[in-house]
Amino acid sequence: MLKIGITGNIGSGKTTVSQMFRVLGIPVFYADIEAKNIMTTDPVLVANMKKAFGDEAYFTDGSLNRKYIANIVFNDDEQLAKLNSLTHPAVFRAFDTWVAGIENVPYVIKEAALLFESTSYKMCDYSLLVTAPLDLRIARVTKRDHITRAEVEAREAKQFTEAKKRELADYIIENGETQLLIPQVLKLHDAFLQLAAV
Ligand SMILES: CC(C)(COP(=O)(O)OP(=O)(O)OC[C@H]1O[C@@H](n2cnc3c(N)ncnc32)[C@H](O)[C@@H]1O)[C@@H](O)C(=O)NCCC(=O)NCCS
Ligand SMILES: Nc1ncnc2c1ncn2[C@@H]1O[C@H](COP(=O)(O)OP(=O)(O)OP(=O)(O)O)[C@@H](O)[C@H]1O
């Protein structure tokens, strides 16, 4: 069973693409969702998060105060490194456990915003980058999340550039306004099926 890592900079459409693979019957592990899940369910991690970022990192009902944490970490490299060091090992373990429970599929997908930065692409057989022009990504994300252009740019600045990711990626999906998404996904699905059959 192959492991395919899907990534892309903020608002590139990686979740949209991953959902298309899911419709084709491919199991998808969403690392970013899992990270947030673990941050509220793992008692040791919750304690460490509060120690690192204060009690305000959580609302009184135990849910994650994402806006508060994002405001801290995307404006301070040291704090971001701290958050990554707390969450990434736990997400790696969760992915391994998830994979171990899956059988009878040709491949699985790990969708991760930081596939390259976290080095987790090395634990996948192939990587797939979803790209779109920066202005289009900003327009899509500010519409979806009601966050500002400056907030998007702050996150963008903390990640590898798209140029660097293009060099690292085995496959690329162009999700701008000139190419249709579905035919690209179907073509790659066929390619992954063939690779899995070898
Ligand atoms: C800081 C948090 C709470 C902000 O939550 P929010 O819902 O606003 O953002 P969301 O998780 O949907 O991420 C949106 C985009 O932000 C960027 N981003 C998220 N985490 C990071 C990070 N650690 N470093 C750089 N960019 C990041 C990515 O482009 C991502 O696609 C959240 O992103 C988080 O918990 N991040 C740490 C976990 C992590 O490293 N996730 C990535 C695992 S691969
Ligand atoms: N080809 C497209 N045409 C129109 N809208 C799109 C397209 N691709 C993605 N979108 C929209 O753009 C927004 C961002 O897409 P998506 O959530 O898939 O990106 P992402 O890379 O997972 O984002 P994030 O980095 O914030 O997690 C969503 O609202 C999505 O519906």
UniProtKB/TrEMBL annotation:
Chief site of localization: cytoplasm
Residues that coordinate or bind ATP: G11, S12, G13, K14, T15, T16
Compartments (UniProt record): Cytoplasm
EC annotation from Swiss-Prot or TrEMBL: 2.7.1.24
Gene Ontology molecular function terms on file: ATP binding; dephospho-CoA kinase activity
Matches recorded under SUPFAM superfamilies: P-loop containing nucleoside triphosphate hydrolases (SSF52540)
GO annotations of cellular component type: cytoplasm
InterPro entries: Depp_CoAkinase, P-loop_NTPase
Keywords, comma-separated and alphabetical: ATP-binding, Coenzyme A biosynthesis, Cytoplasm, Kinase, Nucleotide-binding, Transferase
Top class in the EC scheme: transferase
Reactions catalysed, as given in the entry: 3'-dephospho-CoA + ATP = ADP + CoA + H(+)
Pathway in which this enzyme or protein is active: Cofactor biosynthesis; coenzyme A biosynthesis; CoA from (R)-pantothenate: step 5/5
Pfam family for this entry, one: CoaE
GO biological process: one example: coenzyme A biosynthetic process
Role summary: Catalyzes the phosphorylation of the 3'-hydroxyl group of dephosphocoenzyme A to form coenzyme A.
Family affiliation: Belongs to the CoaE family.
Record HAMAP family: Dephospho_CoA_kinase
Name recorded for this polypeptide: Dephospho-CoA kinase
Source taxonomy: Bacteria, Pseudomonadati, Bacteroidota, Sphingobacteriia, Sphingobacteriales
